[in-house]
Specification:
This protein is an all-alpha fold and about 120 residues long. It has 4 helices and no strands.
């Protein structure tokens, strides 16, 4: 991938630099700069991946909120009704698209893993 980015720059060197040694030195310097940039970005990605509790827990927390709404509507409320306890219903119409999207994306990633996409 880096070669695809560096080759056009190296082609520009052919137009503007006549000395072959200087051209080779500049091409090497550009490639080295690109490697350093990639390594720096990898380090940043590693630090971002570590994150903190809030960054890494938003997805499970969202699922727990949706699950709590479903449990309240379809388990707790019907079981409490015969005893005269009225529990307000949660509006699951807002949670269904969120939960479906989360589960759908997880299902798509599982499909990709089975098909060995992205390995």
């Amino acid at each position: 991938m880096l070669k695809d980015l560096i080759n056009p720059v190296a082609g520009l060197l052919d137009k503007f630099v006549e000395d072959k040694d200087q051209k080779a030195m500049l091409a090497h310097e550009i490639a080295t700069m690109a490697d350093k940039q990639v390594m720096a970005q990898l380090e940043i990605n590693k630090e971002d991946a570590k994150g903190n509790w809030f960054q890494s827990s938003w997805r499970p927390l969202t699922a727990y909120v949706c699950l709590t709404g479903f449990v309240m509507n379809y388990l707790v409320s019907p079981l409490a009704a015969p005893f005269g306890v009225v529990i307000p219903q949660v509006d699951v119409s807002m949670m269904i698209p969120i939960l479906t999207g989360m589960l759908g994306l997880a299902g798509l990633r599982s499909y990709e893993r089975v098909k060995s996409v992205g390995k």
